[in-house]
Amino acid sequence: RDTPTPLALPGGAEDMYSQKVEVDIKRYAKVEKIPGGEISDSAVLSGVMFNKDVTHSKMRRRIENPRILLLDTPLEYKKGESQTNVEITDEEDWNTLLKMEEDYVENMCMEIIAFKPDIVITEKGVSDLAQHYFAKANITAFRRLRKTDNNRVARATGATIVSRTDEIRESDIGTGCSLFEMRKIGEEYFAFFDECKDPKACTIILRGGSKDVLNEIERNLTDAMQVVRNVVFDTRLLPGGGATEMAVSMGLRKAGLKLEGVQQGPFLAVGEAMEVIPRTLAQNCGVSVIRTVTQLRAKHGAAYEEAEKLHGEGAFPKCNWGIDGTTGKLVDMEEFGIWEPFSVKIQTIKTAVESACMILRIDDIVSGSKKRGY
């Protein structure tokens, strides 16, 4: 049946999506649920945000076109992996030890400051001395950011996560963000990296009256994003509202009538089973199920007869009539704009047929429960 329709994507994007592309919703489209406000306050950022405040009160809280440096190394003195005891007999030696620690931190900070970043984000700690140097150099710093959040910032801003301060290069600095801003939502501060140029990751902010409302919105949003992901991988679509199921049902019935004997049974049985979707839609609307399904069957039957008159026996008609899930009326799904992913529909039918075959292969049931008295 020639029903699958390619999704029209703007700007010749069909070629781009016809190749294998990475669509990782879980890692790169973070849903941030913040209780309070209204559902209409929810938004999709052209960038990312995370629940952190700046490490020092004198650091800048709003920067336009910032230079962003991402690290996964601690900006504090490293403690030895093995336990070490140092015996000091002179007071000057103690001061020398402290000075060595301070020089180590200062050296790391100077290597960072040399590249003139506006924002430094690290997954590890930032010592008080490092905060002092950054505040003096007018650099905003964040510490102990989660690895997943750091990866999202990297994809949104074009920065590269660096493991050692002496390996920083100019190409590692992210310049894709147009606006950095600290905002207070409720009782907590959030860092926003917004208005990014061509971000490869984003944050979706959900607002609602309670956690239950937010969880329900998140579930619905996740389902919608999964559908979009499936369409990106396979751009073919099928008409919804039970139109596809009724068309397949009619095709199987007509094919079954050409057969004789036992072979006819499976065709008619699967054809009848396919009608469960339009039947359920009609039941949910509260309309007469028998009348509505009969009318839909007649529409598809008439389309088959018309196609056979025009193109001969065996021709497949193009009939997109289905049931409106709200009113229960028959509508043309192409005009109504209800479509379903081809890949999901095919997988559903495959799973149903395989399950039915598996049940038919089982000729007896062995019960694992013991009867009383034994």
Strand content: 15-25%
Q: Percent of residues in helical segments?
A: 40-55%
Strand order of the largest sheet: 4-11-10-5
Count every helix, treating DSSP H or I runs of 4 or more residues as helices: 12
What does this structure look like?
The protein has 374 residues and is of the alpha/beta class. The chain contains twelve helices and 16 strands. The protein has helices spanning 13-18, 25-28, 91-113, 128-136, 147-157, 211-233, 243-257, 264-274, 276-285, 289-311, 333-336, 342-361, and strands at residues 5-6, 29-35, 43-44, 48-50, 62-64, 68-71, 119-122, 140-142, 161-162, 179-185, 188-194, 202-208, 236-239, 321-323, 330-332, 339-341. The chain has a four-stranded antiparallel sheet. Helix 4 links the parallel strand 7 and strand 8. The radius of gyration is 32 Å and the shape is elongated. The two termini are 58 Å apart. Residues 1-18 have low confidence and may be disordered.
Keywords:
374 residues; alpha/beta; four-stranded parallel sheet; 16 strands; elongated
Summarize the structure.
The chain is an alpha/beta fold and 374 residues long. The protein is built from twelve helices and 16 strands.
Topology:
Blueprint (H helix, E strand, L loop, with lengths): L4 E2 L6 H6 L6 H4 E7 L7 E2 L3 E3 L11 E3 L3 E4 L19 H23 L5 E4 L5 H9 L3 E3 L4 H11 L3 E2 L16 E7 L2 E7 L7 E7 L2 H23 L2 E4 L3 H15 L6 H11 L1 H10 L3 H23 L9 E3 L6 E3 H4 L2 E3 H20 L13
Helix pairs in contact: 3-4, 7-8, 7-10, 9-10
